[in-house]
Each structure stands twice: as C-alpha cells, then as structure tokens.
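Training component of the fellowship. As part of building independent skills, the fellow (R.M.) carried out the full modelling exercise for a liganded target. The chosen ligand was zinc ion. The inputs are recorded below so that the supervisory panel can assess the work.
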Amino acid sequence: MFSFDKKIPLFTIRGTTIGIYRSFFLIVLLTWYWGGPWLERCLFSFLLLASILVHEIAHALAGALVGNRPRAITLSFFGGVTEFQAPILPNGRSLFIAFAGPLSNILLVLCTAVGAKALCGNGDVCSWLKYFVYDFFDWEMTKVSLPVGVNVWHCGSAFVGIPCEAWDSLRLVKLVAFLNGVLGVFNLFPAFPLDGGRIFRGLAGSVLGGKRAAFVTMVVGRILAVALACWCVGHDLILEHEILDFAVGCIVAWAIWLGSYGEYVRTKVFVDAEAGDPEAEYNVGCLYQEGILGAKDMDTAVKWFERAAEHGSASAQFEMAQAYEYGDGVEPDKDLAFAYATKAAEQKDPSALALLGAFYEDGFGCDPDDERAFALYREAAELGSARGQYEVACRYAFGSEEVERDVGKAKQLLEEAWAQEYVPAAIELHLMYEFGLLVADDGNVLREYRKAIENAGPNAADLLERRRIRYKCHLSIELPDAPSAETKETE
Ligand SMILES: [Zn+2]
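Fellow's submitted model of the complex:
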C-alpha cells in the first residue's frame, strides 16, 4: 500500500544515512502551488531542502559533540528528523541538541543580512534584518527606516523582485532569509514534535521536575495546536477561503496535538521507570527492544527487563525467559530461561504459560513431560495465548494421548489464534482445508490463509512444508505435490 511514511535513503556520510520521506514531495508540490515564476519555484524548493538539511545537520553535529552519534537524517513534510544511536532523554544534552537546529537557521538569517549589506554596500545589518522581517509580513516599507536605495524598492511578498544592481543575488539572499527565518522561529514554538517542545520541557524540568514539566509541555503544546486550528478555520477558511492553506495548517495542528501527547507518555514512562515502577521499567525495555527511540538495543532492553522482572513484572519475566532461550542481549542459559518462565507462569502470564509448556515438551531446562506441557498449553489457551491455542488445537486435530480427536474444537481454537495474527494457526487451518479435514464453503477462506502465509515470509513457508509432511504421515495417503486447495476452490 502507498504510504507517505516510506523512507527513501539517498546517501550515507560517516555512518549517517541521509534520506527523504515520501511526504517531503508534498512540500515541493505546495511550493509549486504557492510560488511565482517557475525558476523561482525550483529555487525555492531547492533552498527549502538545503535549509532543512542545514537545520538537521546542526542537530546531528550537536549530538556527535555530546557523544550521541547521529544515525539518520530524513526530510519529511514536517521538516526533518534526525535519529540518534541513543534515545534523546530529557536532560541538558538533549537541550543542546534541540537548540542547535533553530540556532543554525537564525545564524543563517544573520549571515543573509551581512550578505545583503555587502551586496548593496549600504545600510547596517540591523536594518537589513528589519527589512527581511517586514517584507515577510507584507508590512508597509515606510514603517522601517531603510538604507538609501532600499526603501524605494517595491516590497510585496517574499518573491517580489527588487530593482538593485545586485538584483538576482539579493533576491536569492532574501529567499534564504525568509526560509531560514520561518524554520528557525517555527521550530522554537514550545510544542512537540518541534524543537521548541524539547527546549521548553528541558527548561521547565529544571524548575518543576521531569514529570510535571512533561505534563505542562503537553498542555502548552495542545493549547498551541488548538490555537493554530482556530486560526486556520477563522483566517484561512472563513476570511480568505484558502482551502489548501487551511488543510496544511490543520495537518500541522494535528501533528502537534498527537506529538505533544506521544512525547508526554514517553517521558512519563522514563520518569516512572527511574523511580522503580515495574510496569514502566518493562515499557522502557520494550522501547529499546523495538528500537522506537533510536537503534534497537537489546542489551539495554534486557537490563530494563531484568529490573522489571526483579520488581515482579510477569511480562518482563517472560521477556527474560525468551532472552535467555535465544541468547538475545545475554548469554543463552537454559536454567535461567526455565526459571524466569516458571516465575512468570506462576503469575498466570498467558505467553509465559505457553512458553513453559514448550520447555516441558522439549525438555528445555527440565525433564520432558508431555502431560505437564499440555496442561500448561491448555491453561495458556484459556487465558488467550495464541501459542497455547495453537498447540492445543494441533493435538485436537489428530487426537493425542491427552485428548480425543475433535476437528471442530481444533478449528475454533485455530481461528481464535489467527484472530491474533498468529501465523502458524493460519498454516494449520490451511492444511486442514487442504487435506479435507475441514470443508470450505467458499474458496476465499483458503486464498486468505495462503496469502497470509506468503506475506509472513520464508519461515512461514518452511513451517508450512514441515507441517504438510506431518499431515501426509498422519493421514497416510498419497497426495499430489500441488496443493489440492486449487482444485477445491474451482469445484
Ligand atoms: Zn529541529
């Protein structure tokens, strides 16, 4: 499916990948819509890209300076995103990193004023800055006392030409001043996902403490989002009838509304985790495990899971059992894996019950015990574990020492597991239809399972083949190599 969130990597410099999100092209389209002559539009798009890049590179350099290596810079509809190896936590270092971006743009505006002074050979830097600002807001030129030769120029929008000896160069300078001024100032708004949100939270944190500062930042961000939305309705929609401006403004307001809340939740989790809340410690572990804050970092994830597990979090104990099973972030250790799975299972964690069942089935860290394994699987299934439901269903499908054969029960359990997108359940259902244990009312059912298996990748295809051999053995019949589902669908 088409997604504006897709990243297109362009090139890599010293380990930092520079790329663009597809949504970036929307800005280019907008500038095309807003702009003047085509050359100016091209120039505008190019300078916009360059200005955002300068902003993000400033973040990246600041990060590198304080020991947090940048991983990727990606330009998007909302400007750009710089990702770092370590997550950006609310502290002094992140304040520095956040401030570097807007500062780089503001410095560039200063440079343009110096450049304009040099190009025209008159005025001072301060009046040139005023000129850029007034020009941006379309204010009357007479309000500013500009250097001789400048105040006679027509002053319209930022795109209007200026008759001067340094005409073209000056126009370029104006454009750079305009873009960087907007980027610098807009990013200082105290709302996430803008840099100003991080700066505001950092400054507020030194007075209010982390958690309250995060909350206040969220409230301020949401007030700004509502104010922006009101402005869009009042000014863009009702007064000016500018549907496109209205739409863009609303998207930005919506992003600020969501960004403010998301960042608040994330900060709160960290603050609670530091204070020893097991649920929060587990959640922080997940953030590192999934790589939501930066690079995936299983070593750090395991440290948080271990803390949470010590404080009694069953979910964290389950994660520790899996980490020790696969040696993910720790040295593999059967006994520890078994011990953690047992602890979590004692708290009736459904996933842990199923995992412990598998350990008993395979004799992993314990003596094999099929009866115990089945009891655990069944308990897990009753509590909603897809893996438990699947394991119990597989036994019902052909009957086992523990249960009588019951295809209907197997089907029901597998469908419950598949509702949780547990792919082995789709494989089993597919085989049950394929080998005639179940009869499909229409071919769509089979097609759906087959598509799900194909989408799940090579591991799912392998499992399908292995299970198919088991089915052939179980049913002791010769079947053609091609799935007979194909013929059944057309019957
Ligand atoms: Zn920034």
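The panel noted the following from the submitted structure. The radius of gyration is 31 Å. Residues 243-274 form the longest helix (32 residues).
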